[in-house]
Structures are given as C-alpha cells and as structure tokens.
C-alpha cells in the first residue's frame, strides 16, 4: 500500500483530530522545561502519533514527547501524574487493535529515541536494550556475535512495543513468545518511579512475577523503558521449505500431526490460496495457488535432516506436494520476505483498501475445525479474506480487505469477526493470540474471561489509581 | 532421617503450638456445617499441618479443612473472609521456606483430597488436574498415554503447591519451570469467588497475565484449585550418564560451555564431593568421591547421540572422566533415585540433624565464581555443607546440616546464607531460584528488588484487601 492509498484508506474511518491541543499551558510549560524541543504540540506530529495500521479510528494526542532516557520518561510521567494527564507509550506504531490510540488525549511518549543496546552478554545468552530498539536493529547488532533474537511479529516493531503487547509471530512455535523471552524489565510506574522487575538469572521464585504482569499490559500499568531478553545462538543449520497442499484441511492436519509428534519446527506458517494469490501478485512470486505451508528448521545438520524426513512423510500423507527448498540465506530471505509481506499483499488485492487483521488462537486439536468453519462462514462474504497463520501455535489471522468508502463492509467484517471469536472461544481458544486487546477486543475479553476481568481492573486500580496510563484499553473501567 | 530423629530435630526450633484453637465458635460452626467431619480442630491434625521440612519454626493452624471441590474451597474462604480468619493452602507440605506456616493462625486448607485428574488432552499435549494431584501420580497416569510432565522439584509435591512456589528442579534447563508450563489456573479469590485465569490456547495476548501472577504467589493472592499444564511426549530415546571431575570448577565449566553451545540437555545436576560421599553412604552407591555431573538426554536416537558426543568432548576438556551410562529405565531410575535422595542423604551425615537448603541462582557466566567463592566461604565452617544444583539454570543449593541442639550453628548458617545471597545478588542473580520467599527470604527479596516490592504489596492489597490469604509471607506489610 503506498502512502496516498494509505492516507485515503484511513480518512474514511478517522475522526478529525482536535486541531487545538487540550493540554494546559502549565503542563506544557513543565514538559517543555524538561525536554526542550523534544516536546511538541505540533499538529502534524500529534496526528502522526494518533494514526495506526488498523481499522480503528485515529485520534491525536495533545502533545508528543521524545525522551532519551528512562529518567526523562519518569520526569514526564511525574508531570502528567501531577496534572492528571493521560500518558501513552509509543514505539513503531505497528500495533493492530488501536492499542496506542489516545482515546482521552494526553501525552504520547515516543520511545524511538531510546534505541541503545545497553548490553549483550554473549556467555549468558541474554541482552538488555532500550524500549525503542527495533527487532531488526537488534538482530543486525547480534549477527556478528553469532546470536539472534527469534521473536518476529512480521512488522519491524520495537522491543518495548513487542513486550507491551506480548507479541509472538513466526518463531513462537519453537522459541515461545515475548512472555517466555523477557527476563526483566525497567519500568516507569504511574507515579513516575523507576523500578526493575527482576534480575538476569534464568529463573527466579522471588515474589510476584511483575515481569509477566507488565508483558502484555499494553502500557496500562507503566511504561517499559528497558527490556532484558533471552538470546539464542544462530543455529548451525537453517533450512526452509514451501509445500503446497490439495486442501486447506490437509495442510492444517500436517501441522497438527507434526506438533503432536513433537517435531521441533522453528517456524510453520499457513497461507491459504487467496493469500498465496495475493503474494504472487505483490511479490512477483510464482507459487502454486493452493493452501501452502512455509517451514523453517533449526539445528545441527543431522537433526534438521531428521525433522525434514518426518515432515516430508507427514505432508505426503495429507495431500502435500514436493517440498521446495531454500537453503541459502538469500533464498530463505526471499521466501520469508514473501511471507512477511502477506499483509501488504492482501491490501493490494483492492487498491485503496483498509486492512483488518483478526487474531484467534485455539488448541491445536481444534485448529482444522476452526479454520475450515471460518472459511465456510467467510464464503458468504464478498470481502476478500485471505487467511494466514502461525499454525504451529493454533493461531491464525483472517485479513478483511475492506473498502473504506463502504461502511456496510466494516459492519459485515465486524459480524464475521465476532462469529470467529465466538467459534474460537467455544473451542477452548482465546480472542487474541498476539495482537492484544487494545480497543478492539474489549468485549471479546469479557466473553473469554468474564468475572476474571474484575481482577485485572483491581490490579490496574492498584498500580495506576489515577487511571492515566493508556486509559480506555483492555477493559472498561467503572 | 527417620521419624524420631525428625521430631527431635524440629523440637529445638519449634514454638509450642497453642493447644487451644483460637477460631471463634461461630466460624467453626459454619465451617463444620459446610464440611462435616472434613473440618477439624484436632490438635494432632493441626500440629501436622504446622510442621514443615525446614529450619523454620512450626506453628499450628487453628483448624484444618479437607475440601473435595473448588466450590467447597470457595465456601470455606467466604466463611473465613466474613470472619477475617487467615487461610493457608496446603499441599504435600514439602516447601522449604516456611511457605505454609500459619504465622497468624487461621484455617489451613489441605488440598490433598482434591486429587482428580480432570482431563488429559493427548492431541493438544495438555491436561487439567486438581491442585492436590502429586507429580508422581500425574506421571503414573500419563505413562500409558506416552506422555509425561517434566517439572521435578525432587519431592513428590502437589501440582498446586508447585505452581504456588513457581517450582522447577531437574528438568527445567530443557523444559522450563512451572512459569512456562502452566497454561491456566482455576483460583478461589480472597473473597471466595471462583475464576479461571486463561483458556487452553498455547498462547494468548488477552489482558493481564493473571496465570503468571498466581504462579509463584505462594497462596497470598488466592488458592489455586485446578491447574492446566503443558504435557510432553515421552522422548523416543532417554539416556543418562554420570561423570566425575577432578575439580568443582571443571564440572561447572563443562555445564557452562554446554549451555553456551545450546546443547539441549534435559537434565544436568551437580553434586560436590561432600554430597557424593553422603549419597554413597545413604544409597549404598559406589560413586567416586569427586564433584560429579548427572546428565540426562532426551530426543531421537540420532539427536541424543549427537548431544552425547558434544558433552563427552567438553567433559574431557575439563578434567572429566569417562561417562558412566544408564540407558535402561531401571538403571536410570536407580541413578536418579540417588540424586533425588541427596537431601535425605545429606541429613544422614549427622543423625538427628536439621536441614537448611539454600537456593540462589545466577547468570550462567558467573556460576563457577559463585560456587567456588561459596565453597571457599563454607570451608571456614564446621557445619557439613554439601552442594548440589540444577546447574544448567545457574541454580544451586548448599545444604546446612545443622545440629538442632546448637543454636550457634543456626546463627552461623544464617550468616553464611546471607553472604551467599549477597554474593548471588552482586553477580546479577536472585535470592531464590525455586524455593520461593516464604518467611525465610523476606529481607533477601528487599535486597534484591528494593522499591519494586512496593508494587507487590499494592497488588496484594488490591486482590486481598483484608490480608487473609497466607498472611505474613513474601513481604512485610504495613
């Protein structure tokens, strides 16, 4: 999607940002005194920080801060706390459920200036980065040390943002999500204190797991300013392959059986035939227009060969064709680039369209049912709806490629998405595998966990009694 | 340690339990109406539930309940909440830091009657058990299905207790701790509501991670009554080996290098020469009296062979002798039984002794320094102090084998332990890898996390405003 298409796509669902900042002159003066020209009320900068890559309405914050240290973040939060001004942490702006929309205005804190790699402990396979470091920058830095950080949500998100939304993506089937890969956090609390949630030890039983409490809290309990991560040695052998299937069910069943057998696949991504067609058009690939699995295997040469043999046998049993191999780094990058551009390829199916990526996750035994029933339900709709997913985790996305000039399409997508969430919940699944709740899944979370959400509200009230940290997200407050 | 030795060992550090229950007649009557003869104020039963396997003083609860369902637990908690009576969840009673001691009296809820395996979903590699199921009973149940649950803290603890203390043990280096292996919990809250923290999906970004908040909360936020766990297929090949080293440093460096190379060892346990000597006497084994590593490898035959080749080479480089193999199930069980009885073997070094197992965990790069400095510090002491550890995680234990008649030995152990905790913290480590805070590490937690503990207090106050759930543990309250 090019910039002008993007802009037109959004205009239809954008509430005009208030041109005037509603921040009090006193608050603005204090923030300006702290940050100098790294504090701004410029309408353009504000508007840029109210947009998001989603179907949710944009809304500008009243001001934007660009701190360069945890101390500056803490200073800004203390000023906002004194004046009761909402504070929204902002990374790459790639979240998908309106997670960074300042629904009650306030100060957006853009952390992209905090992009230092604080430490890499090669011997311990861990490292500490400021929240604004992107995953691509981190991996670029790590490559010469023979290390990598596996979590890969597709977008070049910041590590702080990935922690805040409990992101996962293509490597989670083998390496886990941000939940499993964050060792410790530096956090600015709602009253502007700076705390560290844990030490660098690989495991600890030292009190409540505050690290996991902030991971996935979407900035509603505090602002993550530094993240200590597990890192991994680059595997001796990495091998990727593509396999096209006669049926969607055959592709899904292949994955289910591989997981049940315990094959430690590093990545296994499903693209249905609609999505493959979109990728072919967008990335000029010539993949067969069939439901397709993208695999990646990590390990020693012998161990990878073993995994491949098993996958080849299972695929053949389920109507899979030959495995098309990519062993060189170049070929692998080409293959995964095609996968990573799937969202943009989907949007390009319909010039000027807005994308709405759904995100359910079910126990693997129900995955085939969930995808096939969803596909059948979508068949009634004229909206293009490619399906792709991190199927090894039971997680998949339908992308609604919606015409922003036709509100009836949004209404239809909303109905289809609600049914998809209900279907996943009925199968023991969750309303969001990795995108978070934000604004878009508030009702779905209630449907999923009911009264349990009251405990979340109680934790929120305890750690942010003024309700200034990214208010209005995850749940409705009394 | 036999029963009479155990009893005499404890007497020296036991405050006499109040022979009279301090529960009001009204509370007792309500609990008796709910539970019938599964509610008792018998002094013997109360005393039994105030003991623990540690150096901490015993203290009896005022009454003990034996519920058989989550609804009964909720009913009992509601009665206690109305009357402001403390509630302590109790499993196998094998925790080590006074975690279940009713320091303010109240009702101990013994969950061992809730020992049903609710569901095993073989296709999803997960299962749900009541909190009172022990890990050995679970594994017995799973064996015929070709599945196992790897977390193994040594003691035959209950799954609810293991979740509450964030237990780990010998398999954590490969499979993670309870933190990584609990998918969802059923919990009775401090006001007697029943909530479920999550669905069965392998991953989720649905709101705050309440599952991880209750895992490791030591019953201070609510009572876990059901646990949904990840399960694993029994590996095709399991191979165990013992390797004796010329020096403690050589043994530790072998582990450090193996971890840094990413060898997916399933278990790697260190026993120093003092501990090996104790095991030989206790279990009638004839292991060489040297620092020794116990290894276990899981995988396909080829993959295990690969791992073994690497370990053999690293061991030889670090003064390790031949690897002594145990491939049959019987031989492996014998070998691991020797390891698992290490604590009792240590106690038997000194008849009538009380054991005090310390528990620090450091980044792996500092493990050799931490163990060697600790060993040097211990050399000044006359107290027997075997060292053993889950060294793949950077976690190890010194067992102080203390004469309960000599309070000066407790004082000395306390000083040595404090220095060990300080040493671990100075190296970026944690005061507890797996035993939890309980009563014994309250000051250490403050030293480790400082002001961060205030956030834990705030969460506690939010979820248990009356402070009735296992009060007095983890931190001091205002």
Automatic annotation (TrEMBL), chains A, B:
Domain called FAD-binding PCMH-type: residue spans: 57-234
Keyword Oxidoreductase: yes
Region (Disordered): 1-24
Entry's EC annotation: 1.1.2.4
GO biological process: lactate catabolic process
Pfam family, one: FAD_binding_4
InterPro entries: FAD-bd_oxidored_4_C (IPR004113), FAD-bd_PCMH (IPR016166), FAD-bd_PCMH-like_sf (IPR036318), FAD-bd_PCMH_sub2 (IPR016169), FAD-linked_Oxase-like_C (IPR016164), Oxid_FAD_bind_N (IPR006094), Vanillyl_alc_oxidase_C-sub2 (IPR016171)
Cofactor (UniProt): FAD
Bias type Polar residues, positions: 1-15
Swiss-Prot/TrEMBL keywords: FAD, Flavoprotein, Oxidoreductase, Transit peptide
One annotated GO molecular function: FAD binding
Domain of life: Bacteria
Similarity comment: Belongs to the FAD-binding oxidoreductase/transferase type 4 family.
Name this protein carries in UniProt: D-lactate dehydrogenase (cytochrome)
């Amino acid at each position: 999607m090019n910039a002008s298409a993007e802009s037109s796509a959004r205009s239809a669902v954008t509430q005009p940002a208030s041109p005037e900042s509603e921040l009090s002159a006193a608050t603005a003066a204090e923030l300006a005194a702290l940050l100098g020209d790294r504090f701004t009320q410029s309408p353009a900068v504000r508007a840029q920080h109210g947009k998001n890559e989603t179907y949710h309405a944009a809304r500008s914050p009243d001001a934007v801060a660009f701190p360069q240290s945890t101390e500056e973040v803490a200073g800004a939060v203390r000023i906002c706390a004194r004046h009761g001004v909402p504070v929204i942490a902002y990374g790459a702006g790639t979240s998908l459920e309106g997670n960074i929309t300042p629904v009650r205005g306030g100060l957006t804190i853009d952390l992209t200036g905090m992009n230092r790699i604080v430490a890499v402990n090669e011997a311990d396979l861990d490292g500490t980065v400021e929240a604004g470091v992107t995953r691509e920058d981190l991996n670029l830095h790590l490559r010469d040390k023979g290390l990598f950080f596996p979590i890969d949500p597709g977008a070049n998100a910041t590590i702080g943002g990935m922690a805040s939304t409990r992101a996962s993506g293509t490597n989670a089937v083998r390496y886990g999500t941000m939940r499993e890969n964050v060792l410790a956090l530096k956090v600015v609390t709602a009253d502007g204190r700076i705390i560290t949630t844990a030490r660098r030890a690989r495991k600890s039983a030292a009190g409540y797991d505050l690290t996991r409490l902030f991971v996935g809290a979407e900035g509603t309990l505090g602002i993550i300013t530094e993240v200590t991560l597990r890192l991994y040695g680059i595997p001796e052998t990495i091998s990727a392959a593509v396999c096209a299937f006669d049926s969607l069910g055959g592709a899904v069943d292949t994955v289910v059986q591989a997981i049940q057998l315990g094959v430690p696949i590093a990545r296994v991504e499903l693209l249905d035939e609609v999505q493959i067609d979109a990728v072919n058009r967008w990335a000029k690939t010539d993949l067969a227009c069939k439901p397709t699995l993208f695999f990646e295997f990590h390990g020693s040469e012998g161990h990878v060969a073993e995994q491949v043999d098993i996958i080849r046998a299972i695929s053949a049993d389920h109507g899979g064709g030959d495995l098309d191999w990519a062993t060189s780094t170049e070929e692998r990058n080409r293959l995964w680039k095609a996968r990573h551009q799937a969202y943009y390829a989907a949007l390009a199916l319909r010039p000027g369209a807005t994308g709405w990526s759904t995100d359910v996750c079910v126990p693997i035994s129900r995955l085939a049912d969930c995808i096939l029933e969803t596909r059948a339900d979508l068949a009634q709709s004229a909206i293009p709806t490619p399906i792709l997913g991190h199927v090894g985790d039971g997680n998949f996305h339908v992308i609604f490629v919606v015409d922003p000039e036709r509100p009836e399409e949004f209404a239809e997508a909303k109905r289809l998405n609600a049914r998809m969430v209900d279907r996943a919940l009925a199968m023991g699944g969750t309303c969001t595998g990795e995108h978070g709740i934000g604004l878009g899944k508030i009702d779905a979370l209630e449907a999923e966990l009911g009264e349990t959400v009251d405990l979340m509200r109680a934790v929120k009230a305890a750690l942010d009694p003024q309700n200034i940290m990214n208010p209005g997200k995850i749940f409705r407050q009394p």
